[in-house]
Design brief:
single chain, 232 residues, mainly alpha
Length: 232
């Protein structure tokens, strides 16, 4: 793709973006229209960025890395996400939405609180099995360097997880399947911290079993004595 030139034949940033826009408009999508192609490019960019963040961190890649992987121009990326901060915010929002959908599925599939907690821990294990880290866990490590909208989105992700866990813990205490002291919110925070930390420590060893053992021990500590005996 050749960028248009402005006065004096010099190509500026807006010229590259305009060229990318023209490229997207001209490309037919699966339904015969250009919007589908444009959306597909944005989705592929988010997929690539998510993997890069989960492996390297947000500060460990650039638009050049994504452009090279997708074999598109950086101008095309800037058309969809004007800045890396815009990309990062979109990335967190999509990840959070998918995680929320997973929690809804857990609620629909599992009735008992201990089963819900086990399914929750499995969400982390599944990510680790792909040699990746939780997206927002990685971003939390880089929190001071993130733009404010991204910082707010990361906090929102953890807040939502704690909200869900708090409800599950209260359900378990009410039905007698879980036992813990203090407010459910405090225990919810312990679970998130424990699972995120277990992922982090397991990573340098390349040993997912380390995470599995830590997660199982954490959940076992919350099982009510009577329920623990019946499981044995």
């Amino acid at each position: 793709m050749t960028a248009r030139t402005g006065r004096g034949g010099v190509s500026g940033p807006s010229a590259g973006v305009n060229a990318a826009r023209d490229e997207q408009r001209a490309r037919p999508g699966p339904g015969g229209g250009p919007i589908a192609a444009s959306s597909a490019t944005a989705s592929r960019a988010l997929d690539a960025a998510e993997r890069l963040v989960q492996v390297r961190g947000f500060n460990g890649f650039s638009y050049a890395d994504i452009a090279a992987e997708l074999q598109i121009t950086k101008a095309s990326l800037h058309y969809h996400f004007a800045t890396k901060a815009d990309l990062g915010e979109a990335l967190i929002n999509r990840y959070s939405a998918r995680f929320s959908e997973a929690l809804v599925a857990v609620d629909a599939h599992d009735a008992a609180a201990p089963a819900k907690l086990a399914a929750y821990a499995k969400l982390y294990a599944d990510v680790l099995s792909e040699q990746r880290m939780c997206l927002c866990g990685m971003l939390a490590a880089e929190y001071p360097t993130l733009p404010l909208p991204m910082q707010a989105a990361v906090v929102g992700f953890f807040d939502h997880n704690e909200d869900w866990l708090e409800a599950v813990l209260e359900q378990g205490r009410d039905e007698g399947s879980l036992a813990f002291s203090g407010p459910a919110r405090d225990t919810a925070r312990m679970i998130v911290s424990g699972l995120e930390g277990a992922m982090l420590v397991a990573r340098p060893y390349g040993d997912a079993a380390r995470f599995q053992v830590a997660a199982a021990s954490l959940l076992a500590s919350l099982t009510a004595p009577a329920d623990r005996t019946s499981r044995a």
